[in-house]
Design brief:
With about 160 residues, the chain is an alpha/beta fold. The chain has eight helices and seven strands; from the N terminus they run βαααβαβαβαβββαα. The chain has a single domain, classed as Aconitase, domain 4 (Alpha-Beta Barrel), CATH 3.20.19.10. It has a seven-stranded mixed β-sheet. Strand 6 and strand 7 form a beta hairpin. The two termini are about 25 Å apart.
Length: about 160
Amino acid sequence: MIVRGAAHVVGHHVDTDVIIPARYLVTADAVELAKHAFEDLDPTLRQRIAPGDIIVAGENFGQGSSREHAPIAIKGLGVAAVVAISFARIFYRNAFNIGLPVLECADAHAEVLEGDVIEVDFTTGRVRNETRDEIYRGQPIPVFMQRLVDAGGLVGYVRAQLAKS
């Protein structure tokens, strides 16, 4: 699986409460959550994100609560993927559970600039910065996790498996 989009760079230790503030957790509707995504981190960020864009983050992206609202809000914005130095483990798994692909790549955060067009290959872990003509090596997504994303998340995957039997 390969995605391509404009990069939006955020810092280190972005926690779930700034991805989607707790005051909006009265719903799990992706469209509603997206209206408030990142507003406590950067109120203009969600307005700059176009469908298919990619978030590039530092260390420990998604730290904090274990609720799935944070990746749901990001997916609701139309973000194609999140590339980070590292992810909080529960966010990492929640992202796949709702069908949001994420990739760990140590070099991307240091090199990618806001607005650079990047291509992310989840099978190989390669991140290509088309704007700067650079390639960064990340950790490929395990095959099972790719299947979850392809199915739209864990619920879609389970439904597909049940339909086969």
